[in-house]
Hints:
Blueprint: H1 3-10, H2 16-31, H3 37-41, H4 44-68, E1 75-79, H5 85-93, E2 98-103, H6 106-119, E3 122-127, E4 139-145, H7 154-167, E5 169-179, H8 183-197, E6 225-227, H9 233-241, E7 249-256, E8 266-269, E9 274-276, E10 279-286, E11 289-296, E12 315-317, E13 324-326, E14 334-337
Parallel strand pairs: 1-2, 1-4, 2-3, 4-5, 11-13
Antiparallel strand pairs: 5-7, 6-7, 8-10, 8-12, 9-10, 10-11, 12-14
Amino acid sequence: MGSAERVLAAVAPSDPTRTLKALERLRPMFLAHATGGAVYLDDPELLAAYRAFFFPQTFAKVRSVLEEIAWTGASVLDLGAAMGGAAFAAWSASPASRLELVDFSDAALLDGMRLGSVVGASVRTKKQRLDALTFSARYDLVIAANALSELPSIEARIEACRAVVAGALTPGGRFLLIEPADRVHARALQELRDRLLGVGLRPVAPCPHDGPCPASVRPRDFCHQAREVAMPEWFTALQDGVGISDRRMRFSYLVYGGEPRATDALVRVISNPIKDKGRLRFFGCARSGLTELLRQDKHASDANAAFDTLGRGALIRMAAPERVTKVGAETRIEIVRQLDTEEND
């Protein structure tokens, strides 16, 4: 059994029926942020439900991004960790890494310590609020998963990010922010990204550029992921139990640290395939802004064959895109990284 499988097996519910009943209480307050995390995490039944249902989702999302950026390291700081879904995802990618969990729920931190002993991970904990961060060490990876959005203002989020980058990262370290994929949270993360550009912080992923976010121009747009991730059967059974049929993991994210890969030739696909009569389209994010990639069926060729395989999140290299980029028979499409391939959003 691999490290990822060991972690997920360790959080599997012992009584799925009881877990589903607890989720009936937990999901509304969790999804609406109707109450502080310390309130529901200090309830043993809700803590167990969180561990079985939300921990695996955070784990899967973080693991997906770490695979994308090929992260390895020796030390991880998980801010707003609960019992450490994000940190254990990093540990599963680099099992020699040491984990530090920061949260304000004693019960959740104790649960994270217990999980570390079960899977063999080195875990430390620190009780601290995100609006009063202090750092006594530097880390190869700092993660804030579904955490910064709970700070009261954009200014507080900016200051937290600046503090992490200035005081918590090792040289070459990475800072990963993950938020929900709904319009409100995704656009708030886009706003944070653009404001951080003003203080010199430039993302290395998912953005293929360091200009303003094109998805912020129109109020209806928001940048998010919908990734296929293999999950254990017990987890998909819980999804069925709460009425979730879409198995994809949806989230928005930013990665800081390292050299930004700004180039005129990179495009991040930000839509699903749009199939019209006689043509195939995608929307993409490029240094030049939002671009519509359009290929007529009669121009399909070996050179642009990769166009047929693209999905939301794919990173491609092509000639410098324009507002509307027509993909001709001679246009060469190179896939730098393929992510989502599902058509239904």
